[in-house]
Structures are given as structure tokens and as C-alpha cells.
Amino acid sequence: MANSITDLFHIKYPIIQAGMVWCSGWRLASAVSNAGGLGIIGAGSMYPEVLREHIRKCKAATSCSFAVNVPLLYPNVAEIMDVIIAEGVSIVFTSAGNPATWTSFLKQQGVTVVHVVANTKFALKAEACGVDAIVAEGFEAGGHNGREETTTLCLIPLVKKAVNIPVIAAGGISSGAAMLAAFALGVSGVQIGSAFAVALESSAHPDFKAKILQAQEGDTQLRLKKLVPVRLLKNAFAEEVAIAEAAGADAAQLSVLLGRARAKAGMFEGDMEEGELEIGQVSAGLTKVAPAAVILQEIWQEFLTEKERLKQLKF
Description:
Layout: H1 4-9, E1 15-17, H2 26-34, E2 39-42, H3 48-61, E3 66-71, H4 77-86, E4 91-95, H5 103-108, E5 112-117, H6 120-129, E6 133-137, E7 143-144, H7 152-162, E8 167-170, H8 176-184, E9 189-192, H9 194-197, H10 206-214, E10 220-223, E11 230-233, H11 236-246, H12 251-258, H13 262-268, H14 292-312
Parallel strand pairs: 1-9, 2-3, 3-4, 4-5, 5-6, 6-8, 8-9
Antiparallel strand pairs: 7-11, 10-11
């Protein structure tokens, strides 16, 4: 399948693996890229020299395109960008911040830039800044999320109507059927996080992967909205946040409660009670740990199967 997204990234399938903190190292990114999608190294959990190591290992593991995701809210972004340019990364996804800050710099270096948005206001701003494509991420997504709580099904048509550059759908997509639904709304690709978080090559702790697979409907909730909105699996820490928010805690109080390295403790080190466990609503439908290539192919084959099934419907 060739379209604006496969052409932009030089990939076989319009399937992008999300740049998830503590899950998306070089092993996962290279596995997805080798399978025909676009693998992404998640720089949000990495110091600059750690990122440099992951980029080099990814290059050694794949000759295919891959990207780096940079959450713009982190303090060492300038150093991260220096590493990206020095190591010759050709595709960067920016998120959780103002696209005006780094897009021009990256474009001047010949980098393809994609920005993640949760509303049409920032979609338009990103387009005006010169990004090459937009990821429109709905409320269902894990990790950092939009305060508006707009679902993917509602967000995609709004963003697609507002901009003239390719749109990639994210949030609540873990199957070929969901991918097809997003394409019906006009997108040119999908970005998938949670389904790849439980991939064999994901650097997530085995206990975190197991907890994801045990999740039921309603086991994730959007928390920390006064600080940085994030979708979390329920555990002791998430309950503490819920109690604090119900009591009217402000951003400063929530920041103290969050502390440092809580996401690392949960997702990477395996503290399932006091750690921060970021994952999407689709966790309720995930059933197994599998190689990234298997996950991607199952999604793609279901996409094709459902596409053919719809052709047979009589109206």
C-alpha cells in the first residue's frame, strides 16, 4: 500500500509505533521498522547520551526508516535535539509542547517533522509551523493526553477538515478493524502504542506487560489534568492521585505527589503499586505478548480482511 504517509517515511505499511517512555527503545523501534512499519525511539525517558546509544544501536539493527519522539515538556530538549542532528536522524515526532519551538530548526536540518496534537487549534498551529504531518491523538490514548477529552472518532474528522497535510490517527487503535475505521475518516496512517507496549521487544517490565494484559474495561483513567494529563492504569498511586484531585489538589500539590522517576519505577522497574503505569484504553482488549512483527502483520492482515468484508456488504 502506497500513500502520502508511506511515501513520506519510506515505509511499506502506514503503521507507526508510538514513542512510549520506558517501552520504546532501539529493540522495539528496529523490530517495527524491519517489519515494514515506522519504529520510533521514545526519547522522553532518555538522557542525551542514552539516546545516542539507542540511535546507534537502532541503525545497526535496521536499514529501514525509524524516528525519534521528543516530548517538548522535558528540560533537556536542546541537548536531545543536538544528539538527533549529530546522529543523522531523519524523522522526528514532537509532542507535549509548542510546535513553534523546534520545527523550524529541525526543518532547516532536513528533518521530516511530525507533531502530535489533541485538538484542531494545535493542528492548525503545527501546520503553520511547517510540520510535514500531524498525529491526531484521541482521549483513549495512553501516556500524555489532551485536556479536552475529545475521542479519536470525533477528533479525526475535525482535524482532517482543518488541515491540508497528512493526518495520522492515534488513540484506541490496536487492531486492523480500528485502523480501517480511522482510514474511513480520512487519515493516511495510524500510530499505535499500547499494542506495541506488550511486544516481545518492548523494554517495559514483564510485570507491567502482565498487568496490561489483565486490564479490564474502566481500568485506565485520565489523571493529573491540572499538571500534565496522563492516562494511567489503576493502582495504589493512581488511587492517591484520585483522592488528591477529589480534594482539590492544585498543580504544585500534584507535582509533589508525582515526585521523580515514578514512571520509570512502574513501567521499567516493575513497581505495580507505587509506579506510574501509562497505557491506553485498548489495554482491555490486548491478550498476549508477541514479537512486534507478528503484532504488525496481524493488524495489517485484519485491515485487509475487514476492507474486503465491507466490500461485500449490501445496503
